[in-house]
Model the fold of this input.
Amino acid sequence: MSLTMAEARTALDQRLADVTHVEWSENGSTVSAKVAATAVTLESAVDMTTYARKGIDVASPPLLSAAASSSGTITHWRFTTAASGGTAQTGWNALTSSVTLASGEQIRVNDAGIGEKLTIA
Done:
């Protein structure tokens, strides 16, 4: 069974309806204690010709994460339902490029870089 594009968009919108934050990781398996989760609003899923995509809505870029509490390199992100103690709504996704932060620095979040996609058959 394959989904139509409209069904893929609907599936993404329903599955990610409770997302409120992006969590950050230094290894793709645990939440980093160095950067707090970033509050986000997700756009409605859109048709990208061969897949549906649902990502963050950045009306006035750049959206910035909290300041890093200490230096480290962030390599992954995932959507979750709360700033702390929420339920992960996606698996860990690798950043296009890792972000090396000094203490006090922030991650610049753009709408093209953080999003889930569902490819139709």
